[in-house]
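Quick one - inputs below.
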Amino acid sequence: MADLVQLKRIATQVRRDILRQTHYAASGHPGGSLGCADFFTALYFEILRKNDAHFSMEGKGEDLFFLSNGHISPVWYSVLARSGYFPLGELATFRKLNSRLQGHPATHEGLPGIRVASGSLGQGLSVAIGAALAKRLDGDDHLVYCLTGDGELQEGQIWEAALFAAHKKVDNLILTVDWNGVQIDGRNDDVISLGDLPAKWTAFGWDVLHMHGNDMQDVLRGLAAAKARTGKGKPVVVLMKTEMGYPIDFMMGTHKWHGVAPNAEQLENALSQLEETLGDYPYVEKYQPEGA
Amino acid sequence: MLDQLVVNGKKATRDGFGDGLLEVGRQYPQAVALCADLVGSLKMDAFIKEFPDRFFQAGISEANMMSMAAGLAIGGKIPYTGTFANFSTGRVYDQIRQCIAYSEKNVKVCASHAGVTLGEDGATHQILEDIGMMKMLPGFTVINPCDYAQTKAATIAIAEHQGPVYLRFGRPSWPVFTENMPFEIGKALLLQKGTDVSIFATGHLVWKAVEAARELAAHGISVELVNIHTIKPLDEEAILDSVQKTRCVVTAEEHQIAGGLGESIAQLLARRMPLPMEFVGVHDQFGESGTPEALLEKYGMGASHIVEAVHRVLARK
Ligand SMILES: Cc1ncc(C[n+]2csc(CCOP(=O)(O)OP(=O)(O)O)c2C)c(N)n1
Ligand SMILES: [Mg+2]
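Output:
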């Protein structure tokens, strides 16, 4: 079990990975990825009960995670690599031709750790519910985790899934919402307001919890609390307050960094705000897989 | 004719949509626009600035947007919906089918980022099946312009056209070369007269076909190059006139071979004038992340692939 200091160090390195991946790809989505780095680190290095030896699509006897807001793939790729799903150096291929690290997560190229494609928003929660139902049928008492964006909650399918999960008492499921208050065109409240979000989930029959997504200690507390609420007849949702772009000074307080890569100068500035704790992955133009 | 083709820099076709939409707003007070959280990508800012009351931000709710557009059309408005091509079609196919196509509503479904040339976002976003889906809907007009100028002209022309339209365009910066050419819905555009082979191309691949035709000319092969911007209704007479003369055909499109422009032309020829034909497009595959040019090459849609297809079809003549 990693301690708090170590988890923070990992999250800092993950943030460097996010900035470097998007910079070298000259595209991608750093904003939401940075905001969710603490959550992903906690999930993969502390919370998930997973089989570290090898990745299996079925994931029997393991907790599963589904990323519905697939555009924040850089943060997922970083924690997957750093927790051993594939070689760290492969991060250098992000968004390049012939890469397994597609712009949006995909199974098509066989990247370990990914179980379904996402990128078209609004679909991941339904997949997670299906996987949770399969676990229930198999008598597998492991949990299914899912992350969505908040803008993503504007998709009707999310609420179809929400109704279903409550009705069928899918209580082996923990949904986290990246509640950063922004999306591509601006603040949620200016695009289409989510209104009283906690009240909506409560009205839909979910058990609603809160946590601060950019405070590692609170993420650990929040996820542990969520875990403790599973198995009680209700699906669980954690509304996670984050800041898009956290903690890079010039990336916070705006939606502008949703889908823009930092240029060389911006990268340098951003990296200067994050200690290289575990060592950067080597960036090379032409990555050679190990043993190839 | 191609040697006289004037290329006026590069611009994205989606910029043509944005500029055309502003014109539409000025000419047609009943025109309204909707978008699903992609205002900047669709270049709709100028319209929104000038006509804030006639713009509806739908949020990330494409299904809702499409059916609302049908309602606006019932009220006599001319709704233009804007989002990526994937979310304009596959995502909302039943909403379009029932509320717009079957109900005969005057909605303009405007779709950016079509095909592999959207690049790094990858296959989840690179729709290659949309022409097929949309041309199958009874009563739909399907237009895939080839450059900035043609997209702008088409955006304006569809306002005058009564009935549902699918307007497909893309993300990358692309050569602009039709500025001084006419645009009429349903009318093929002859870019070069020729005698050996007819190339029918649509969308971004029209430029690739221009490059191919130039290379073929250098090898003494005379290409008749025709831009088919309107895939439905197809300009059957123009196609037959051309093929009558050249006796063989290559089609080029940034789309699956199944369901695309080539398939429509093959059906026409099978009925009226069966002749050797080759198809440039995607062969039953999904795309992936990469740069637009690298992807066109990898998936068989570069100029060299059109040249090869011409050699193959000439050998079968
Ligand atoms: C169905 C669908 N519609 C539109 C998009 C384009 N898109 C990608 S991310 C995004 C905004 C998502 O907002 P949010 O969920 O809040 O994520 P954040 O910007 O906070 O990372 C949009 C509209 C998409 N990927 N899928
Ligand atoms: Mg958000």
